[in-house]
Design a protein that fits this description.
Blueprint (H helix, E strand, L loop, with lengths): L3 E4 L2 E3 L5 E7 L9 E6 L6 E6 L6 E3 L7 E6 L4 E6 L8 E10 L5 E3 L8 E5 L2
Parallel strand pairs: 2-11
Antiparallel strand pairs: 1-3, 3-8, 4-5, 4-9, 5-6, 7-8, 9-10, 9-11
Length: 124
C-alpha cells in the first residue's frame, strides 16, 4: 500500500466552500475506486463519497448529495472533494482511502492504513 496524504481543510462559515485534495504515493492508484470518509467528534468514521477508477461513476452519502462533488486525476494520483454549502454538521476530520461498495449503496475503506486526515470546521 502507498501513502495517503490529505490537505485543503480549514475553518469556514456556514454556506462556505472548501476543496480537499488527497494524493496517493503508488502508481496503482488508477486501479482503485477512491473514496472520502469523515469522522465527526464523538462519532464513528462514515462514508462521504466515492469515484470509480475511470471517473465513470460517483456515489454520495445522502447527507452530502447535491453539495459535494468528488473527482480524480489519475495522472496526478489524486482525488478531490469539492464541498459547497457547508453546514456545521459537516465539521469532521476528512480522510481518503481506496473503497469498495456495500450492498446499501455506501462504501467501506479498503486499506487498513489511513493518512493523517484534514480538519474541516464549519462554524459562525
Amino acid at each position: 500500500q502507498g501513502q495517503l496524504v490529505e490537505s485543503g481543510g480549514g475553518s469556514v462559515q456556514p454556506g462556505g466552500s472548501l476543496r480537499l485534495s488527497c494524493e496517493y504515493s503508488d502508481h496503482t492508484f488508477v486501479d482503485y475506486t477512491m473514496g472520502w470518509f469523515r469522522r465527526a467528534p464523538g462519532k464513528q468514521r462514515e462514508f462521504v463519497a466515492a469515484v470509480t477508477y475511470n471517473s465513470a461513476t460517483t456515489n454520495y452519502a445522502d447527507s452530502v448529495k447535491g453539495r459535494f462533488i468528488i473527482s480524480r486525476d489519475n495522472a496526478k494520483n489524486a482525488v478531490y472533494l469539492q464541498m459547497n454549502s457547508l453546514k456545521p454538521e459537516d465539521t469532521a476530520v476528512y480522510y481518503c482511502n481506496a473503497a469498495y461498495p456495500n450492498t446499501g449503496g455506501t462504501y467501506s475503506p479498503l486499506f487498513g492504513a489511513w493518512g493523517q486526515g484534514t480538519q474541516v470546521t464549519v462554524s459562525s
